Amino acid sequence: MVSSPLVRPDASSPPGGFGAVDLLQLVLEAARPALGFDVAVAVLCEDGRHVVPVFAAGTLSPPVLEGVHVQALAAFVELAGEDHAAWPAEDPRVIPLGKPVERAIAEPEAYEDAPLVVGGRVAGMLRIDRGRPSTREQLAVYFALASDVSKAIERLDAQRTRTRLVQERLLQSEKMSSVGQLVSGVAHELNNPLTGIMGFAQLLLLGNLEEGARRQVETIYQEAERASKIVSNLLTFARRRRAQKEPANLNTLIERVLDLRHYDLRVRNIEVECALDPALPDTMVDANQLLQVFLNIIINAEQAMRAAGEDAAGTLRVRTWSDAGTVSVSFADSGPGMSAETLRRIFDPFFTTKEAGEGTGLGLTISYGIIEEHGGRIWAESAPGRGTTFTIELPLVGGAAAARRAAPAPEPSAQAPRERRRILVVDDEESIQKLLTGVLEMDGHDVQIAANGREALDRLSREPFDLIISDIKMPVMGGSELHKQLLDRGSPLARRMIFITGDTVAPETRGFLQTVENDVLAKPFRLRDVRETVRRALAR
Question: Nearest 5°: phi and psi at 2?
Fold first, then answer.
């Protein structure tokens, strides 16, 4: 039998809520005049133990209380099954019915028992003493009362589960906020050197290299780009924001998650087979939320296949397709599969088959809620020894056509622009200064350098410039403050600023960028993006 959080044994009223014991006390006090009992006992199941509150309209001596307690547990084991014989029981506690009365109550000789059925399972028992024979009407009232109490406890149980789920989500949100701050700083530190490595590799590739050297530089660039994708994915999963639906392609989202898990899948001997529909249409989704769902399913599949042994090989098959106004994705693993009972409960809050500390039992619950919020469906098919397949079906929203495939952008060329301009580069990283100077001078521009916003203002007061390219985070004065100073002075250069940043997660960075219309280059950037952005900004 599965226990549920119905009561707390340390207090009749659980902190922050109304519990089953409170409910029973109110109901029994109201029913006592009609049913004529002096002692009532409840046996309630919670977290693998029995809680036994005793309600009395007088005083019970320790031997009487012990006898009432022992007999109630024995009767419940007989009712619910021998499995409960091994469950521990809390010490009995007496709860007065009505005003306390100094009247000793003898141990009852007989009881009337009624099961408390919650969610189709016997989750407890209620018994009242039969000091005198009960009439048919009294028995009907008593069993109706037990049925109503069962329904009320079920509602209390559901409410407590929802409350607990909200608390877990809040805790997870706080954790992710802390992770986001950590990742923000790490990403900024990683993106600066990655920008230099990728940028100078691109500059080298523009020159005349012998074939062996060219292949080596291409490898440097490809590996740096791979590292930049890992940082970008970390930033995506660390970012916490309001749900925002926009056109997205499930193939792209799946590829991003698989990129993030590539190393773990490879070292665990898990082969990934993808059958992604190249004509899959876009649909309106919150990309970050779906990334969270896909990541959770893939990690669950990894853990299931790993259960066969550290050296055992596994296969994860991912497929996408569209049909009749929907887009779908399936994840099929070659793990041990699940029993029908486990399969029935996988979306229940706090249900987990993992070892303690490996999971909260919330991942699939949250995933279910996300897919439902998108108007879609998520389900699983499994059987012992046959693996597990999760399928997600989402509505095709907005009449989205087949996903557009952008044509490859041309590589940068050494062709000079028609007009030479003066450009001020503001960045505290020497590698970024040299990189931007190299690509801009290659296009024929006159480039000057400032290490922070204060130096930039000094230079701007002495020399004319046509464009500013500025980092956002710098010592002394950052790019946002530099922009504000230019606006306050009425300088047209405030509109001709291009911001570069390696930190798109920090709330202050996102908040600032949402207030301006200037172009932004996210580190690490490609040289062709720099040149195109400069051309567009100079045209303003």
Answer: -95, 125
